[in-house]
Design goal:
Blueprint: H1 2-29, H2 34-37, H3 43-52, E1 58-59, H4 61-66, E2 72-75, H5 79-84, E3 86-87, E4 91-92, E5 96-98, H6 104-115, E6 121-123, H7 127-134, E7 141-144, H8 164-174, E8 180-183, H9 186-192, E9 197-198, H10 200-206
Parallel strand pairs: 1-8, 2-4, 2-7, 7-8
Antiparallel strand pairs: 3-9, 5-6
Protein name: Rhodanese domain-containing protein
Keywords: Membrane, Transmembrane, Transmembrane helix
GO cellular component, one term: chloroplast
């Protein structure tokens, strides 16, 4: 019993120590690397630019699915999420990627995300280049992320609701794309509406993004489509 008690105490102290290191890294050392955390454009800048340029139209998941042959449906979530499950007919151009390298700034960034129990990511600096390789400039582009976001303000908000779809729209407009919209409610709404979802392995096997396997999202509370 004494041995078990000591092991339990040791684990508790280890957990406390790890939390302390993470806390210090987040709130003590992070300011040193503040410039490394700064993105090309923060959300307030993105919001003001999008509103000033007329906003970004939203489309329902059903409308986006109906346009999958004429428009380019672009999933801007992490590549691993796309590979696990994505809207049928969508291509992957991730706006964010896992934190790269082990520089001091990258380590502090990992600690900062870890402290809050969040998977660490960074802006994909090759996003517009990858988009240019995958999306012809003249095509309509429909963006999709987890929840869609909004430029509309409700009581108590000043800058809408941030999302990766809207941030991606900002960067694509800067790159010369003009026919851009985003899926309202994102993949969460897509799944709730019972629209087809594919996994990367199935699409690769079929060789056609429009013939992928249909899945539900049980981890998000969605039922399998029948």
């Amino acid at each position: 019993m004494v041995g078990v008690s000591r092991r339990g105490t040791g684990i508790a102290y280890w957990a406390i120590g790890a939390s302390a290191v993470s806390f210090v890294g987040t709130f003590g050392l992070a300011p040193i690397f503040k410039s490394s955390f700064k993105e090309d454009a923060d959300w307030q800048t993105v919001y003001r630019d999008l509103v000033a340029s007329g906003g970004v139209p939203s489309v329902s998941p059903a409308a986006a699915y109906g346009k999958r042959k004429s428009a380019v449906l672009v999933d801007v979530r992490l590549g691993m999420k796309y590979d696990a499950l994505h809207p049928e007919g969508a291509i992957s151009v991730p706006l964010y990627i896992p934190i790269q390298g082990w520089s001091p700034a990258a380590i502090i960034r990992r600690l900062g995300f870890g402290f809050f129990g969040i998977y660490g990511t960074q802006l994909n600096t090759e996003f517009t280049q990858q988009a240019a390789e995958a999306i012809p400039k003249g095509r309509e582009v429909i963006l999709l992320c987890e929840n869609g976001g909004s430029l509309e303000n409700k009581s108590g908000t000043m800058y809408g609701f941030q999302s990766r779809s809207l941030k991606a729209a900002y960067f694509l407009r800067k790159a010369g794309y003009s026919k851009i919209s985003y899926v309202k409610g994102g993949i969460a709404q897509w799944g709730s509406d019972g629209l087809p979802l594919s996994d990367g392995a199935q699409e690769e096997e079929d060789g056609d993004s429009g013939s992928g396997k249909q899945w539900g999202l049980p981890e998000l509370g969605f039922a399998r489509r029948r």
